Amino acid sequence: MFNWFDLFKRISLIQPIQPMKQIKPTQQIRFEPLNLGITMEDKIKLIADKIKQGGKNIAFTGAGISTESGIPDYRSQGGIWDKFRPVYFDEFMSSADSRAEYWRRWKELHTGILRAKPNAGHLSIARLYHLGLLQAVITQNVDGLHQESGLADENVIELHGNTRRIRCMSCRKITPTEEIRKRLDSGDEAPECECGGYLKPDTISFGQAMPVIEVEKATSLSQACDFFLVVGSTLIVQPAAHMPVYAKQNNAFLAIVNLSETPCDDVCDVLIRDKAGGVLKRIVEAVENSG
């Protein structure tokens, strides 16, 4: 019998879990070893067949799906945190200099995001949704490319927010991004709201509380799903990294498409180490071409 508590402990040691509601342990789960000896075509077909069965299918995406759109990830060599030291939330809230530095970086990164377009991975996930074969997308990404690919906001659970939105930290009002760009270009280094509160991209910074509603919704969907597809995530950031474990505890079919190792590789049903775009395109083709 596979020890799920060992897996939770192993994942939790990678990065502390943000506060969230207590999750009650579910019944013990039958563990089946990963199919390592099958071909890529077999893996594609197996995933496509599971998707075609319908039910509650969930996709979970990380930075690896958006790197193919030209958006750098955060943790790999040459990634964002290799270039910039993170500005922590308490620094942003307590220091005008830190806010100015944060906005300077946002302006540079946002320019790249505006140029980025959904790639084959995003479009494939959107296709599955429009075929009625995907319930929702849970994403760690803040680039809004799932919405750009044709998914509605209500079908995308953004665990880490969205950098295309600007929110006041006091009154919570949303300010159009275009207005903030103009203010930054005109010399306003750290824009403030009309109420006097600090404006900030609507993303989760280091040290900032996770969005309770989104985390609870993602947890509920993961615990109740029949099929869970991880795309482009190393599954090391909490509490997001627990979502596939919740799914597997519910006896969901777990598939992982990622270039590097994850803590869940040895519990998933299918593992594909490859770029997301090409793999997802082949999965959709297999879904549409099957009888």
Give the gist of this structure.
This protein has 291 residues and is α/β, with parallel strands linked by helices. The protein is built from twelve helices and nine strands.
What brief labels describe this structure?
291 residues, SIR2/SIRT2 'Small Domain', six-stranded parallel β-sheet, 14% strand, alpha/beta
Summarize the structure in words.
With 291 residues, the chain is of the alpha/beta class. It has 2 domains: 1-19 and 32-70 and 118-160 and 210-291, Rossmann fold (3-Layer(aba) Sandwich); 72-115 and 162-203, SIR2/SIRT2 'Small Domain'. It has 12 helices and 9 strands. A hairpin with a 5-residue loop joins strand 4 (161-168) and strand 5. The chain is elongated, with a radius of gyration of 20 Å.
Low-confidence stretches: 1-5, 8-33
CATH superfamily grouping of the largest domain: TPP-binding domain
Oligomeric grouping of the chains? single chain
Number of structurally distinct domains: 2
Q: How does the major sheet shape up? A: 6 strands, parallel
Order of helices and strands: HHEHHHHHEHEEEHEHEHEEH
Number of helices: 12
Structural class: alpha/beta
Overall 3D form: elongated
Q: Which fold name fills CATH's third level, the topology of the largest domain?
A: Rossmann fold
User: How confident is the prediction overall: mean pLDDT?
Assistant: 87
Strand content: 5-15%
Write out the strand line-up for the largest beta sheet, numbering strands in chain order.
Answer: 3-2-1-7-8-9
Q: Percent range for helical residues?
A: 25-40%
How far apart the termini lie comes to 36 Å
Q: How many β-strand stretches?
A: 9
